[in-house]
Amino acid sequence: MLAQQLANGVVLGCVYALCALGFTLVFGAARVVNFAYGELLMIGAFSTLTVMQTLSVPFFVALPVAMSGVALLSALLFYLTIRPLQRRTTTALGGELQIILVTLGLLYVLREAANVVWGTAPRQMDMGIHGIVLIGKVVLTKQRLAVMALTFVLVLALYGLLYRTRIGRALRAIAQNREGAAAIGLNADRITAFVFAVSGALACAAGSLLGSLYAVASDMGSSPLLKSFVIVIFGGLGSVPGAIVGGILIGLLENLSGAYLSFAFKDVITFAVLIAVLLLRPTGLLGRAT
Amino acid sequence: MSMLQKTSFAAFTLAMLIAPLLLGDYQAYLLTLTVIWAILALSMAIVLGLAGQINLGQAAFVAIAAYTSSVLRLRYGLDFWLAAPIALVAVIVVAALMGLVTLRLRGPFFILVMLAFAEIVRLLIANWQDVTNGPLGLRDIAPPEPLFGLHFETKIGFYYLSLAVLLICMLGLSRFVRSKVGRLLVAVREDDVLAEFVGIPVMRNKVLGLCIGASVAGLGGLLLGPFLTILAPSQFTLFASVDMIVMAVVGGVATLAGPLLGAAFLVYVPELLSFSSEYRPAMMGGLLILMTLFAPQGLSGLAINLRAALTRRDRHGD
Prior knowledge:
The complex is a heterodimer. Chain A is built from eleven helices and two strands.
């Protein structure tokens, strides 16, 4: 029983970690709290489904196509709505608050747009992997194993991108010191747009995985958005390892408290633990003071 | 208040008093809706303007006031006028506790934790079936009992009650902003490090700002139950807080009239265009984006700019 709950928790945690990664990247590099992130997840799931249906290709072929589409959309949204605010100097409200307001607005607009394009009815998405695996007494569907494997691949790819490429180095430079990076000739706007694109691609992957595990629906974005908040606060805002560790911890916490304490109150317990963590470590478990 | 402000406030009060008598029952309903939204938008404008923060947990304060008062009335048979102060005290205590915890946190952490707090409150309401009736909600919430010979059972009576609450909040705030404590709050908002340095108790002032915002939100919540006659946890999601933000931002947070303007705009524009309600969220989102990008000071800011431009032209004409 305990082993089964732990295994379920880790699988759930992997998806959560993937959700939180794109969110934390954008915060780390651009200091943007993106409230529209959950909607990118939802649009990503619908895009994968649409590509699967129109081209009649399997999930794993459709996913990269949809990921590049959502990456473009995310970069476009940055150029249209967030960059003008980052350039503005004197404003009535603080610049950070204005960006939050705009992403909140995007949340509504994107969800309504999805309602118009794809309708409000939830849909099934079949990953094409069936059957179960027994490890000792623990039962896992092969689909869940595929979810874990895909998360692993994407995290590796992200680390490769951040630590093995020129643009990854530039991206980390921007995250550490925006003015300094600009002073040595890095184009902050272009790199930030690139971060938004990567974040969009990750959102699409996370959304598609969630969609294949549960269902694809226009209101599927809220819960992962809230989960991402909790995870990045747990792990430290802007920290990539923090998002991964935080994601798995939250997945475990949710499953264990749901199984042993109270299913109805499992989210309340998660949020209460979050507030307790912040009281003890105001910048999160792995976060540094900013 | 200046002479001009006093005159326009008096004229506005008079217009709002007469309006429902000339118009029908349905208009009285829309006006009440506007006034209650204006109270809620005002509470958000206080947090934005005085504390310099976005509070995505504001709906939780509304929910606590609405549910506490309605549960006390429905389950324990308390009078509205006895339940209301108890509910308000509950809101202020919760706000003070949350403030002590969250206002130490900088920037986005405050926003995210308040959002988590709002989710906790909503989930507790949805799952605490014995008291709150869970997702089905509370039903048949009666209008407030008569007080000092005044009756609130009719639509117009209830409208006057809501209007009185709004006017008291607006007057109280305009006095508060000019008071010593109000100015201290603004100083803390502008630069809390400097404020701390010159000896202003920053934490105490921030908590006070949050409590004032929460109690105004609570006043709106007290009216919400009797106005809608039903309360359900689905009314108090993140979107309720965002609606308040949109109204405050559309109207402008720099003036007291701003939130009222925003509330009126967002109640009457869909009404006049006879929008079906499914387009409302898209309109809210679009407005929020456009106003933030192109008119960050809101409608009232636009009006002030327009007046300034006109007087400048007059001077040039002389």
